[in-house]
Amino acid sequence: MNNSKNARRVGIYSVNALFCAFLLALILAPFSSVSIAQTNITGLWLYKIPTGDGNYRELFLDLKQDGETVTGKVMFSLNRSTPISDGNLHDGKLHFVVMFGRPPRTRQLVYDGTVKDDKLFLTSAFPGRPTMQGVAERTDEKALQPPPRLPLPALHDVPDNGLARTPPMGWNSWNKFAGKVTDKDVREMADAMVSSGMKAAGYTYINIDDTWEGQRDPDGNITSNLKFPDMKALADYVHSKGLKIGIYSSPGPKTCAGYAGSYGHEQQDADTYAKWGFDYLKYDWCSASEIYKNDEMRPVYQNMGDALLQTGRPIVFSLCQYGEDNVWTWGAKVGGNLWRTTDDINDTWKRMSDIGFSQFDIAKYTRPGHWNDPDMLEIGNGGMTDEEYRTHMSLWSMLAAPLLAGNDLRTMSDSIKEILTNSEVIAIDQDPEGKPVRRISDPASTAVVLARPLHGGYLAVGLFNRADQPQAITVSWSDVGLTETPSHAHDLWKHADIATSGATYTATVPAHGVVLLRVTPTKSAR
Ligand code: GLA
Predict the structure, then answer these.
(1) 322 CA closest ligand 1 atom index
(2) Residue 153: which of 317, 30, 296 has the closest Cα?
(3) Does the active-site annotation cover 344?
(4) Mean pLDDT of successive 10-residue segments in the chain (526 residues)?
(5) SS3 category, 411
(6) Active site residue 160
(7) Residue 522: Cβ-neighbour burial (10 angstroms; 0-12, 13-18, 19+)
């Protein structure tokens, strides 16, 4: 009896204990991220950040959790990742840091978030920059793989489309707007192109760079995203201003900004661009590198060269693969009107001058219809002085490079407008013969003398000062191929003739500056 009483009591106690534990669990439930934190977050996650235009930026997080410590990496693509540091998961709160760049220019991207229902709700921000928000869900290795490789065509020479007999001139959205460009910006830039006098100076193309793309419709047709409600209407608007319009894509599945590329849809996309009324395509290698090797670029670009011709619409074809695989030797053969020769420019004297002064060895590949492209202009974006921007404009013109302004045409100062619309300098760039520039000076010298033969026997001569202080630079007329003192020479920035006598001409050139001359040889030398 006692035993059974005791037994019952024990039973009652244990029922009570269970009930209490249940109550406690109920009370603590809202705060019980502790139990959620015990969800081990080790594994591969697809992190989608809405870009605000109907698309998502997609990253992969490869995480490993050991207790409260989290290690791993953020993967931007199959072969591009950055390790995470300072990672921990505490009470369901996840925190880690990703470092970008090399010292002393490193930047920290700090991720913070919570783990809930086996999802990671994350925010990330560079110091002083807007916060990005997104959700990561579990995924597997397959999601990381690029689509299957499509066979490449046999090589042939794509017929010349007859366009770009002089280097293309216009404006491109990337340098100033990057991923923020909208339909409204493009329309306003077309307006400003006309009202500023840029159109009258020869600038023609209004080119939309990356981040206009939306998703593909069920038939595989590319659509534009929320920032660009109607591409055909936009093209009509730009055309109504007497201008032409350009678009951007990639031969890979994704563009460099992670938007839809043309992989496997080349003809379909070319047809869409033609239907919308586009006149120019910049075709950027980007994620094609996950599928093809660099020495397979030629057939990949040939595909699009053929597709553009097939549309029957005249469309300038701009190759952007950063000068890999000696593109200047085959760019014209894939139907290219211009090809990038370098990695991206930025708005600094160092980058602009490093690019601009490294182009002479390949100058001979440039010719009417087919141009070396040392990247778009940064003139007016604020990172260089007017002196340096004059050098940028002069150097690009001596190189017969495309002149694609990259600044905000709506708000540019008079001095920037003057630089971009200097008709005498533009005439050097646009010389109908497109003859290559020649460096006359010693390659190691900071005093760079360039010469370029022009139509009609004239000669462009540039005295460039790469040094950080002014210096006197001398050109000897015989070094630039003249047998006599020229009869006449005109300074294209001062808009004044200079006196020519004797065998040489010397000018004191400001630091990072230029003296650009158009020289009229004596009759016998022409
Ligand atoms: C690459 C190109 C740039 C620009 C961006 C867009 O970096 O070189 O000119 O088009 O992609 O994502």
Answers:
(1) 8
(2) 296
(3) yes
(4) 38 44 48 54 96 94 97 87 95 94 87 96 89 95 92 98 98 97 98 98 98 98 98 99 99 96 98 99 97 97 98 98 98 98 98 98 98 98 98 99 98 98 98 98 98 97 98 97 93 96 96 98 60
(5) coil
(6) no
(7) middle
